[in-house]
Amino acid sequence: MQVRNFPKRKLLLKRGVAGNDYFTYSEEVGCDVWGLLCSIKEALYEPVGLWLPDSLCLPGTSRYAQGVEVPDDYSGVIPEGFDLMDLPECKMMMFQTAPYDDLHFEEVIMNLSEVIDNYDPTPFGYGWDDEIAPRFQLDPQGWRGYIEARPVKEVLLADIYYENQG
Q1: Percent of the chain whose pLDDT exceeds 70
Q2: By C-alpha distance, which of 157, 145, 134 is closest to 1?
Q3: Would you state the torsion angle of the CA atoms of residues 47, 153, 127, 58, taken in this order, to the nearest 10 degrees?
Q4: What letter does residue 141 receive in the DSSP assignment?
Q5: Long-range contacts, 128-133 (Cβ 8 Å, 24+)
Q6: Pairing status of strand 126-128 against strand 90-96
Q7: pLDDT value of position 165
Q8: Selection from 164, 147, 152, 146 nearest residue 127 by Cα
Q9: Which residue among 33, 53, 67, 99 is buried most deeply as judged by most CB within 10 Å?
Q10: How confident is the model over 115-137, as pLDDT tens digits?
């Protein structure tokens, strides 16, 4: 696990209607989205699957989407059916598993997601900040392990202590 700083940037994404995970999203939207996202030359890094916070969901759209982050000054093409949104500077707590056999990717994803859902970042001076940016997953590739990230904010341990006292 590590915490990384993400600069102000934009997110180019394709929303779904009802899919709230990769499998239901892919059934609904199809698998061509990923290839299109891979072709965005201005991408800051590889495409991601992401879970949008309430603040970034639009009425009638799903929580899960696929997208790619691009520089804040991105002025490239926005493919038909895609949205471009601003993302603020933030910190992300990134989790990575050990390498695994690709045949077991579903189990690895489910296990790490459960670990993250139950993880308490406060002993390290952080709290979850789920409304600032999407939680995301990189393409599961067994050779590098599964990688998932969730937004965090710095918190003072004294504040947490006093919050828990009253």
Answers
A1: 94
A2: 145
A3: -50
A4: B
A5: 128/152, 128/153, 129/90, 129/91, 129/153, 130/53, 131/53, 131/54, 131/55, 132/53, 132/88, 132/90, 133/6, 133/53, 133/87, 133/88, 133/90, 133/92
A6: unpaired
A7: 61
A8: 152
A9: 67
A10: 999 999 999 999 999 999 999 99
